[in-house]
Amino acid sequence: MRSALLVIDVQRALCEGEQASHAAQQTVERINQAAAAARAAGAVVVYIQHETATGPFARGSDSWQLAADLARQPGDPVVHKTTPDAFQQTGLQALLDSLGVTELVICGMQTEFCVDTTTRRAAALGYPVVLLSDGHSTNDKPHMAAVDIIRHHNHTLPNITSFGPVIRACTTAGLRYAA
Questions:
Q1: Percent of the chain residues topping a pLDDT of 90
Q2: Of these residues, 15, 107, 114, 170, which one is catalytic?
């Protein structure tokens, strides 16, 4: 098996200022650790970047840019998406296929939206998934605090068995890549 780390929507709009996700800086640091470990193991690191026609994710705007502290390397591919699903109407699956990727490690921003949707879609497409349990975040919502949303997803996503491939949660410290 060959792994790829998908870094989803770690963009300035979600990492800086008033709308920053819970513990955004610490989450970015753990994502950088996971990316460095991936590269050292020969795994692929793919950055997913959300874009819209207007608003904070308008392509080319300052808030659309990847987070300033994110340690993206020049050879790391970037996939642009317009929906919460990083596979929908993007070249992600073709890229993963061309690189021989058979397992995904998923991390990033907006746990209950893009991280959740992409994790479920990956499993539905046949990829075993490792959810980086300390490498995804979101904002507080009126009905639930960010820490509870994160905890909820770390518990529920690994309990989905109907897709076939296993989804498991793992911390950055416990992560091992298949290269």
A1: 96
A2: 114
